[in-house]
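Please review this pair:
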Amino acid sequence: MDLLTFAKDIADRVETQSARAKVPVAVCVMDIHGNVVLKHRMSGAPAFSIDISERKAYTSALVGVRTADISPLVQPGQALFPLMGLSEGRYCSMGGGAPLTKEGQLVAGVGVSGGTVEQDVAILESALREA
């Protein structure tokens, strides 16, 4: 499998959903080793959105869960609370990140940022449903 081709397809789908929602976003796809495969910021997306999309992709790629699902697990007193302080703060628990699998195997993570957390999640979920 060509991961770059897969990442471009996901990014195209995110951009399509983003345009439909009229919310410009940044999208990042990262492999399971923490390497950026693709990073793209749509015109009009906030400047900080590229960094947040990368953190969401990193978290989903390395932990293998949606960032929205990890949020309750990293709260004070919870088992994964220390996670947020690891890796120089690269982990992110805001919704908008998801693991990507091929043939049942985790191959990457994708992160979307630029709108509200709810908008980021909706754009990502719509894009992944199309995939």
User: Anything to note?
Assistant: The helical segments are 3-21, 49-63, 67-70, 117-130. The first helix runs from residue 3 to 21. The beta strands are 26-31, 36-41, 97-102, 105-113. The two ends are 15 Å apart (CA to CA).
